[in-house]
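User: Teach me something about this protein's shape.
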Amino acid sequence: MTGDALVELEGVTKRFQRGSGTAVTAVDDVTLSVRRGEVLAVIGYSGAGKSTLVRLVNALEQPTTGTVRVAGQDITRLGEKELRAARAGIGMIFQQFNLLSSRTVAGNVAYPLKVAGVGRAERDRRTAELLDFVGLLDRAHAHPEQLSGGQKQRVGIARALATSPPLLLADEATSALDPETTEEVLTLLRRVNTELGVTVMLITHEMEAVRRVADRVAVMEGGRVVELGDVYDVFTAPQTAAAQRFVRSATHDRPSPEALARLREHHAGRLVTVRVTDRPRLQQTVDAAFRDAGTGAELVFGGVGEIRERRAGSLTYELTGDDAAVARALTALRDQGVSVEEEE
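Assistant: First, the predicted structure itself:
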């Protein structure tokens, strides 16, 4: 574990008993840290164990084995009174917003402060400050049913920040929103991190959300963390099949099996995909390798974008020429550290 970790999970396993008496392992021997000041995305398909993981972090569930520490405190050993105090340092936002319909927007944001015993004047000041931060000060006296989904989630974020927690947990916070509203909420979460210094743990199944806001990403499958790394590294060089599936779902820069079949109808040559990174003069290196090997090269598929202001994507070429020439081109690229794969 690192000294700058705000959240530390060590050897954490969580099993649930089914009605039949059989045990289901939702989280399986996970060791993971969340660094202070970062946005860590935990991504996985339904059933991967990510939502159970976040419930372990805020102590809504206790691990079967292992330890969970938040801000250096082992929350697996706390009594209920101590747990309530520890949870005050953990903000939480949800997929379905969980706002109190009987309270106004301001009332929802002020509620955690009231529970914490904060005086009226300070509650009002802090509520106005947070509503201004999320862009909803003019809706302070509205009720949740008068708000759009994106506005409800912004209220949820303001409420989660009311007690100035150092940690914010976002469990599928954009899953119920349309794409435009999702982008607005993700931008707000990034501001929470960069402007307020809040550490964010983002639970999601959407790789686009990871691309937009995360510093690092943990990929979960079958209750385990199967890949962990800098978000740029995972996007440009995913090491596991699970990570590769997620990256393709977000970038759409490599041809799907159906797209490959269509390409082969019109391109008889060999199809190869070059991974694009922010390496200087990459395109010149690729063009020179094809030219020097004596292969023809036509760009037939791909896309290049940015991840955290760094170039990333893939380009698929049809290579023509004899097999030896194509082999020379691929060897030359690999010898220079360029990632290139032949499409099967």
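Now, about its shape. The chain has a mean pLDDT of 91. The chain is about 40% helix and 30% strand. If you'd like, I can walk through any region in more detail.
User: That's plenty for now, thanks!
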